[in-house]
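Quick one: structure for this chain?
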Amino acid sequence: MKRLFTGIVCLLISSFTLQAQVSNRTLKKEFKYEKVSSYDLEKWDFYGNGKGVRDVHKQFCLAEAEGSKGVVLVSPKSYGKDVIVRYDAVPLTSSTVLVMMLATSDHGNKDGKLTIPDNYDGALSFWNNNVDGYFFAYHNLAHNYTPFVRRSPKVSKTFMAYAKENVMSPGKCSHVEIGKVGGKLWMKVDGKLLYSVEDKDPYQKGKIVFRTRGTLWFKASTLIKNVEIFSRD
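Got it. Here's what it folds into:
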């Protein structure tokens, strides 16, 4: 009976630790905090055929135009080896596929440098083949997948981790948290942990990238707001 009780306690503690990931005390004490407004997002680098514009309601709209291969928004600076991004996202169409990339840099670069060609057209192949980093896909039911994370460059269709179900809906505002601390990677939506996985050879510094893409001939668009970034070197 005593062993059973001890096991249950350990399981509960483990579950709580997994949900918490990083305590608020640690965040306040050890991490740099940055609040990114819609005005700030206008200063991020935009690529692709579409638009990235500030909305009048303190939101930022990321949307494709006709003939788009995807649109991306790239942070002007690189962030430390530990980074957590929290924000609200509203996919405006059911065909919208949302992606965030962390620790994104040139192959083998340890300083977080990311070189994007001037003629880059927003295509996914660049992120699959030309960079190091972590590719988090969510609101991706239109691609017949549940939320997942994989390493870039892409070497197979195998994911590092994936969720059991889709939890976001078009037109609904969801609070997203995507994190990388050491080798631990995770995603939460509305406070629910979708998955957590450990990378034994983690990437270090890199840029943060938002990406959206439609499905077949249907274009994608999304609203982003209340972006918060916690980082530690």
